[in-house]
What we know:
alpha/beta; 5 strands; 47% helix
Amino acid sequence: MNDARLALDIETACPDGPPSDFRNTDEFELVAVGLGASQNDETEVTVALREGDWSVEHTAALLRDVVEWCETSGGTVLTYNGRNFDEHHLRVWADQVADAGLWTDAPERIESLFSNHVDLAPLAAEAFPHAVRQNREIPALWKACEEADVDQPSVWYDDYGLSRAYLDGLGIDDPHVTGMHVGEGLGAAYVEGVAAGLDETRTHAELERLLVDYAAGDIEPLFSLHDSLRRVLAEA
């Protein structure tokens, strides 16, 4: 399986509080994007980070970084539930930055990027129907990886120089990072630290390292999950 593939997973924050509608882009801000390129059994993984405050100018800059990296690498884009989340929100942000006159061809570039998109979530539901969550249409990513015997690494807070008091202040008491932690605390703390010029502080540096590791952590599993799903569905 040596076809060129890309993997993409966005990390978002909700500075105004937990979202009431996961399709409403106005309730989310783009913080980081995990990216991967795989071909001929070689995989490259990187993370693009927001480099300023919540203003649309920084959304535009991050979108451009993502699109240009993907265009350079090329290939089918893999996501997990991307049609309902990653692709959906990236398209809306692209329209917003175009409307602001910051990058007028952003919608067309995003359209081209997702013209060859494979959302692994419905494939996982087809391959592992018993794993689909109650009242949902797809399995959780961790469950799909478990069913496919794909390792999905965890990011543990003990591996980073973030004090217990700091994490308590963000309402975090779990041992490992979750998407909810990023969305409701870590993502906003990172961006606000960048905006406040805290880049050189140890806490900010450790928070950035954690976010990069977390965003990168789901990228290689997407390639492995894709391989597994193709095998399972081909044998069905």
